[in-house]
Amino acid sequence: MTDLTLPEAPDYDGAHLRRILPSVGASLGLSSSDASGECFQNRLGLPEANIAVVLMVDGLGDEQLARHTGHARFLASRWRKPATGRVLDAGVPSTTSASLTSLGTGRTPGEHGLTGYNVYAEDLDRVVNMLGGWDPEVDPGSWQPHSSLLGRAEGSGAAVVTISRPQFQDSPLTQAALSGGEFLGAKHMDARFRLAEDWISGHRPRKGQVRQGAPTPLMVYLYVDELDKTGHKHGVDSAEWIRMLELLDAEAERFCASLSALYGSQALVLMTADHGMIDIAPENRIDLQALEQQEQDELLGAVEHVAGEPRFLHLHTVEGREAEVRETWQRAFGDQAWVVQKQEALDAGWFGPVEDRVLSRIGDVLVAVHGPIALFHTAESGKAPLSMVGQHGSLTDAERKIPLLSLSGQDIRPD
Fold first, then answer.
1. Is this structure's pTM higher than 0.90?
2. Angle, CA of 109, 115 and 116, to the nearest 5°
3. Cβ neighbours of residue 40 under 8 Å, at least 6 residues apart?
4. pLDDT at position 3
5. Strand-pair partners of 375
6. pLDDT for 228-274, tens place per residue?
7. Half-sphere exposure of residue 117: CA atoms within 13 angstroms, side-chain side
8. Contact at 8 Å (CB) between 371 and 365?
9. What's the CA gap between 156 and 217, in Å, rounded?
10. Residue 115: closest CA among 132, 102, 124, 125
């Protein structure tokens, strides 16, 4: 065991990111079209609606919002009220690929298999990327075989749209986790909000207009990544990040006011995030390849592959040397990280239920950083990531706790 008590696993069965879209589907009155017969369940106690917008703000953790409420007064007005604001868990690791796939499939990382930013592919015997650098030999549908909740909602009779950056329309991550319905792309944040408003108005008569029959339920997935990009570049306490938060707050307020005026209580607007973020000082961004050769040899000599991200490393070791690697990394970083072998993490429930096909993607030794450092394996990543200020991936509250806000003002009541 490690010297420090391990953190609790994410609340996968309760207040977790993966429960959002099933709860939205239930709030819209949708039945399931999944081959397993699994139903949409309103585990998060969302109010009934026939228009639902899920605003995913990449990188806006609950602690970051709490620290900057004065720059996000509209969001803060919902965050402060228990009836319109809750705190959810992201999964392990607290990173975009894992979280968006949990959101899109309703599955834990151990089930869907996107267990990090970089993941070891046993059949290829190499580390593959789960975001913009997706390996062409990794088929998204085989790598992640579970059905998309957006697709299930569409199959259940809802009109569904994803509104995001244009380049994500056919991305492997979209194929693996967020397929289904229409896709509309816009480069800038304000244009994405306006696309969402226009799409809804094109599918729904305004309040008071005559219509025939029951309205088609509408589900909108609206993705905003400007805060995440700004946080990585400048940090989450920077003037640039705060300015981007102010822009988001203004756009969200304008959007919600417009929907409320047009559709009243028919429209439910939820805001959430995929992870939080912390700033890492330049001197605490540790390049493993810049260490003394003896220290490199001790840390990496029995490690065949390094995957994950700087605050959550997956170390795939030479067979039989897992305990040795754990002890070596514990001596080096045990005051700054939880260093565990795979079985310890599985027993602790970090990844939730884990399917057999996913086991090899989890490192033999895991280094989950809790101190103000980040560990870079630049032999694979190159040196460019060393310039990134904002980091995430581990199990600290600042990285894993995310908000769920009802921006339309309708109450959220736990089921």
1. yes
2. 135
3. 22, 23, 24, 25, 26, 30, 31, 32, 152, 153, 156
4. 45
5. 286
6. 999 999 999 999 999 999 999 999 999 999 999 999 999 999 999 99
7. 20
8. no
9. 10
10. 102
Determine contact, residues 312/368, Cβ cutoff 8 Å.
yes
pLDDT value of residue 1: 38
Specify the pairing of strand 374-376 against strand 285-287.
parallel
* pLDDT reported for residue 210: 53
| DSSP codes of every residue in 321-334 | -HHHHHHHHHHHHT
Contact indicator for 376, 323 with CB cutoff of 8 Å: no
- Res. 2 pLDDT band, cuts 50 70 90: very low
What's the gap between Cα 275 and its chain centre? 5
Question: Widest CA span of the chain, in angstroms?
Answer: 77
Cβ atoms of 108 and 102 closer than 8 Å:
yes
The full set of domains in the chain, from first to last, is 17-115+130-277+397-406 (3.40.720.10), 282-391 (3.30.1360.180)
Q: Distance between CA 37 and CA 331 in Å, rounded?
A: 49
With 80 as the cut, is the pLDDT of residue 280 above it?
Answer: yes
pLDDT of residue 409: 82
Mean pLDDT, range 291-315, rounded to an integer: 97
Q: Are strands 118-121 and 126-129 parallel, antiparallel or unpaired?
A: antiparallel
> In what helix (H) or strand (E) does residue 304 lie, and over which residues does it extend?
strand 303-309
pLDDT over threshold 90, residue 120: yes
